[in-house]
Specification:
Distance between the termini: 47 Å
Radius of gyration: 20 Å
Subcellular location: Periplasm
CATH superfamily of the largest domain: Periplasmic binding protein-like II
Family: Belongs to the bacterial solute-binding protein 1 family.
Strand content: 5-15%
Helix content: 40-55%
Protein name: Carbohydrate ABC transporter substrate-binding protein, CUT1 family
Strand order of the largest sheet: 2-1-3-12-6
Organism: Arachidicoccus rhizosphaerae
Number of helices: 18
Shape: globular
InterPro entries: Bact_solute-bd_prot1, SBP
Order of helices and strands: EHEHHEHHHEEEEHHHHHEEEEEHHHHHHH
CATH topology of the largest domain: D-Maltodextrin-Binding Protein, domain 2
């Protein structure tokens, strides 16, 4: 047992838990006076559960960036720019994958360091496409055609539905939240809903109960589906031995000659404002998010790094059937969600509105009106 104990909270998947345990173990070997214990919670809790109570219980927190505004306003985390060396912060900024670093900044402060980088990308069963001598879908129309054959699977729980709605809006040329009090213009919103529903009408209703992990488990374990057009990427499933069948990951298809612009996700590592051993916690954070650890120890133990050095590694790409190289373009153009204090309330409920429309139909104008009403409840 170490003289100092740090408690951390992450999410319960090999990608979220195992690499942190590995980095903690090595860090403890180098610092005999410290013990680091990582706990885990469900992916749904990761997206939904309030961060305030967790910050009082844990020293180290793996977080989702839309919580940054709330956390900053309520002083839940340490402003890391006041604790970390400027050289380290500059390396993180220059080595960020897409908007990962920016996503954890708010009002000029850095509240977490990117640990994991992800955005919805396409994935498929290479054995099925080879066996059937089929080319991969290149356009949204190609995806619709494949869906008619029962081969398409995608995540349809509420939060993923909302992220994918953002994707359609961005790809149509208008980012959400650009007009005060309004989520999206009626023209873009109606077109986005129509496109989205044209796909979900052709897919198995089971999709509405799936998150990305469940999608990949089904896609890799059964022969019922062969292609997922967009879901947050998981490099684990592209590695030999992780699942029954290897999945390959690639960039998103094109819509009207524009590649789909998905919504960036990933995770960041923050230190609680209530941490009693800040120097030790910061030292572990710096160690775990450093380029060398991200490229090797973190990746080697199932992690999906956030540093460009790890993404550009030839060895890492060879080990994952070129996951990083193939999906990097999608990360670079991905849309950054809002981080203002109050956004989480919208995210927690907006997906249900869109999901219900995709399942049951109705007047799409009413959907947009409900979304705007929800958006304006934040105050």
């Amino acid at each position: 047992m170490g003289q100092i104990t740090l408690k951390g909270i992450t999410w319960d998947h090999s990608r979220g838990y195992t690499p942190l345990v590995a980095t903690a173990q090595r860090f403890m070997e180098l610092h005999k006076d410290i013990e680091i214990i990582w706990h885990k919670r469900s992916l749904q809790d990761f997206a939904d559960k309030p961060i305030s109570s967790l910050a009082k219980e844990y020293d180290l927190l793996i977080i989702d960036y839309p919580w940054i505004g709330f956390s900053a306003e309520n002083q839940q985390f340490l402003p890391l720019n006041k604790y970390l060396p400027e050289r380290f912060l500059q390396d993180q900024l220059q080595g960020t994958v897409g908007a990962s670093y920016e996503s954890y900044t708010y009002k000029g402060q850095t509240w977490a360091i990117p640990m994991d980088a992800a955005t919805p990308v396409a994935s498929y069963r290479p054995d099925w496409f080879q066996k059937n001598n089929r080319p991969l879908p290149a356009t949204f129309d190609d995806v619709l055609e494949l869906a008619e054959q029962g081969q398409v699977i995608l995540p349809g729980i509420a939060v993923d539905t909302l992220m994918n709605f953002y994707m359609f809006c961005c790809t149509l040329g208008e980012n959400p939240f650009t007009s005060p009090g309004r989520l999206i213009s009626e023209t873009t919103g109606l077109r986005a809903l129509s496109l989205y529903k044209s796909l979900t009408d052709k897919t198995d209703p089971v999709c509405f109960d799936l998150n990305p992990i469940k999608v990949y488990e089904l896609l890799s374990a059964s022969d019922s589906f062969s292609y997922c057009p967009f879901a947050y990427g998981y490099t684990n499933y592209s590695r030999p031995g992780y699942a029954d069948h290897i999945l390959h990951f690639t960039d998103l298809v094109r819509l009207n000659d524009t590649p789909l612009i998905s919504t960036i996700g990933g995770t960041g590592l923050a230190v609680s404002q209530y941490c009693l051993h800040r120097t030790k916690a910061i030292a572990y954070l710096q160690y775990t998010t450093s380029p060398n650890i991200q490229e090797h120890l973190y990746f080697d133990n199932g992690g999906q790094p956030a540093h460009m050095k790890a993404w550009s590694s030839g060895a890492n790409n060879a080990a994952t059937n070129q996951f990083f190289q193939q999906t990097l373009p999608a990360l670079k153009r991905a849309y950054l969600r809002p981080r203002y204090n109050g956004y989480i309330h919208f995210q927690d409920h907006a997906g249900d509105i869109i999901r219900q429309y995709l399942i049951s139909g109705g007047n799409p104008k009413n959907v947009l009106n409900q979304l705007d009403q929800l958006l304006n409840q934040r105050n």
